[in-house]
Amino acid sequence: MGNPFPLYRKGIIYVIIIFLALFTFSISIVSASESYISSEDGPGYFPLLDKGKSATLFLSSQDYPGVLKVAAHLQTDINRVSGTMPELIMDKIPKENALVIIGTIGKSPVIDQLIKEQKIDADKIINRWDTYALQTVDEPLPGISQALVIFGANKRGTIYGMYDLSAQIGVSPWHWWADVPAKQRKTIYVKPGFYSPGEPKVKYRGILINDEAPALTNWAKETFGGFNHKFYEKVFELILRNKGNYLWPAMWPPSAFWADDPENARLADELGVVMATSHHEPLMRSHAEWNRERDGEWNYETNKETLQKFWRGGMERMGNYESVVTVGMRGDGDEAMSENTAVDLLKTIIADQRKIIADVTGKPAEETPQVWAIYKEVQDYYDKGMRVPDDITVLLCDDNWGNIRILPKKEDLKRKGGFGIYYHFDFVGGPVSYRWLNVTQIERVWEQMNLAYQWGVKQIWLVNVGDIKPMELPISFFLDFAWNPEAIKAGDLPQYYIDWAEQQFGNDHAKEIAEILSLYTKYNARRTPEMLKPDTYSLINYREADTIVDDYKKLAEKSKKIYDALPESHRAAFYQLVHFPVEICSNINEMYVAAGKNNFYGIQGRASANYYAEKVKELFINDAELTRYYHEELAGGKWNHMMSQTHIGYTYWNNPPVNKMPAVSWVHTPTPAGLGYVIENNQNFFNR
Length: 688
Fold this sequence. Notes:
- It is built from 19 helices and 20 strands.
- With 688 residues, it is α/β, with parallel strands linked by helices.
- It folds into four domains: 34 residues; 159 residues, Chitobiase, domain 2, CATH 3.30.379.10; 285 residues, Glycosyl hydrolase family 115 (TIM Barrel, Alpha-Beta Barrel); 179 residues, Methane Monooxygenase Hydroxylase, Chain G, domain 1 (Up-down Bundle), CATH 1.20.58.2150.
- Strands 13-12-11-18-17-16-15-14 form an eight-stranded parallel beta sheet, covered by helices on one side.
- Strand 2 and strand 3 form a beta hairpin.
- It starts with a helix and ends in a 6-residue tail after the last strand.
């Protein structure tokens, strides 16, 4: 057997090495998550806001236009927090004791000078995707005693650095989209040191706006005049503040991102948001454009030349804008291309599309990022052995209900294009659509996306978020997790709720709000609101139906107490992010249980059936009233239309045209002559 002790000693050494590695990793995570902001001064602290004065922001006009635009956002954010607007100066270095220097490596002469003089630790971020750092520096430039330097490896990195500072001082990424007030501060200091979260673990991290009519569509039309650059500027800012970088734009007809407003794509590229098209929209063309320009069938076998011309136009319009090009083909709209799995035809289509890409860009096709989404029936092609060129990202998908359908085989992991995941917080399809409110638990998202990450899916993480508005919490989590899945363990999820609640509402009620958020999504995940029916929960077995109603009511009561205790400045945000979904879901569950009791007692001929018939009417009307308040009074009517997805009265997978009250019956009590009783059925007499 030989001497076992050398092996034993090696084992000890390995254990020590692993322990040190874990310890080092733990330290890096802690330092990355700790705030570098202080309200108290200390040795070497940088005074961002001191004695009523904000430090001046300094940039080079040679930097990216998007960086300059976001610097103005940072300027406004500091003013939101402090009531003091800092100066923003270009090129000419001001005579200041303390200066915030902002710039991108290779674009800002001052940043490049600081690197050359070894005054900032650029080696830790240079040539790394979307990476940034904030570093305090003593005597960075002649006449400047101290600086906070925000610098990025690319334009997104620099933008992330500025938005990171905004978040740290108290401006939520949801400040505009959910009316979250900024934390008020009289002093702001930055602790001395170097701060960077490192390079993101997932390259493209983004959202899909989908199923957006009537809610988001009508809201955008009323607020901005449509899905134009004014609308998308708010979307781009939201994505970047959440450290995302990728977007599939609104695509329900008649939305066409590139055709409707040419400024949309230009602004996306300026700000660093990588644009793409959905799984059934090849080569940067919106399907709505095909509907407008339709020339023959959407059929490659019979209309090849027309389709190639259409796709070529999309590539020509893309120009040099940073994009990920969808390849492949599905049917006309969100349908299958053919009844059978036409592998040879799809291979030909992708090969021809790559010829167009190479011809238009003037460079080999593999130099343009591309994605092939194996969504729904397209997975049949993959399962039958179809593969695409190595540089194309294969976008795997969930089953539309949050369960990932397939993960890469070990032998496929070395492919250059890698793999991505297309996930859902919103879905239109069978068995029943869910598109009204958030029904997604972040625990499920963590479990599924962590599984994907462990299996090597790191190129694209994309999630369908419907109208954006009801999905604030899971959007935050999805994009936070995508930045570094290794930094959030399963045991960290309860704290994530608390941290998110604290970011929006402060410390006082964060734990209570976190509990409400976690329970609300748990309750909604039992049965989505659209799936509810009068007989969903049992009226007799273990008081199931009453337990469901009681759970929601208790949650709504807790939420109302917090709402009443919050200052007026925080109530609009709390109503949107917490109270409205809890209150209206409590209402709708109680309504369906009341309808169940009406039916149950009506069959028995009991007079109590009439009480529950009235209760159903009352709760149905209350649903409309809660929606009206959200649209007309909340935040001065800012969010009109946003909650207008129909959600009551589903009879099959698609949503009904209007909300329909559950059918109720009325019982006529026995007459003195003993003539018995009569049940009257009243179908849907309260519709809207």
